[in-house]
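Title: Prediction job returns without error message
Component: structure pipeline
Severity: low
Priority: P3
Assignee: unassigned

Description:
Job completed but the reporter wants confirmation the result is attached to the right record. Sequence as submitted:
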Amino acid sequence: MMQLQVLLVAGTHGNEINGIFLFDQWEKLSNLINTHGIKTYSVIGNPEAKKAGKRYIHQDLNRSFKEDSFLSINSSDFEGSRASELVNLYGEVGEKPCLIALDFHTTTSSMGSCLVVYGRRDADLALASLIQNQLGLPIYLHESDQKQTGFLVESWPCGLVIEIGPIGQGLLNSRIISQTKLILETFMEQINQVKNLTFYFPEKLIIHRHIKSIDFPRDEQGNIDGYVHTQRQSKDWQELKKYDELFFKLNGEIIRFEEDEPYVPVFINEAAYMEKNIAMSLTKRELWDFKKEWKQSLIDLVNQK
C-alpha cells in the first residue's frame, strides 16, 4: 500500500505569520503536533515574502498554481517559480508525493475559523464535512469566479484552505496560534480515522456558496470614495436583508443592499483584497445532503495501493 503523505503549508502569504510560527516551534518540539503516525511535510509557502514581511514578491502565490502557465523554476517571477517548485517537490507525482494539501491562512476580516473549498471535488467535500462535524467550522465554497483562480490546494488530489481571523498582517496572536494547532490536529485525527475506517460522516453539511464579490464605491476617476458601513463592519457570516447598509460616503450617502435574496457576506473589508477590488464576497447559505460518493472518494484516496 502506498504511504499516505500530507503537505502542510503556512505562509503562502508571507505576512501571515502565525502558521509559520507554529511550524517553527514544531520543528524544535517534535511532539508538539500529533500526526497519528501519518507522514507530513510542513513548509513555508512563500519564504522570500516572509523574509520581506510582504504578502508576495511579484504576484499572489495563491493565484499562481495554473497548470497552463507554470513558469520555469529559474523564472524571474518568484511566485511562478515557487508554485512549480512546490508541485515538483510535493505534487502527486513529485519527489515527495502528497495526496492531501492543507493550506493555513489568516485574515484581517472577522471570519473566525473557517474552511475554504474550491469547486466541488468529492474528497474535498468529504474531508470538510468531517471537520465541520468535529469543530462546527463554516465552509465557504469558492466557485464560479473566473477572476480568482490558480489556488494552491487545487494542484493536489485533495486540498483545503483554513482561514482564521481576525488578525492584523504580520502580527502573532495566541488565539490564532492555538486555533491553528487545534484545527491541524483535528485534521490529522480525522485523516487517520479515514485511513483506519473508524470515521463518522455527518448526514448534512452547511455550505456558504460563493455568488459574487462586490467592490467599494468609486468616483469617476476610479478612486475609492466610500467605506464599509459601521453596521456591516465585522459582521461576516451574518445574513443581509434588503436595504441593509453596505457602504457609507462622507457626503452622507448610504449604499444599501438591494438584492431580494438574503445573501451572507464573508471576507468583509479584508485588507489584502483591496488590491483585487473586493470589499466583500456574497454567499448563499445552503444545507446539503452528504453524498456517499464523497465518502468513497476520500477512502480511496487515503487508502491508495
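Comment from assignee: result matches the submitted record. The chain has a mean pLDDT of 95.
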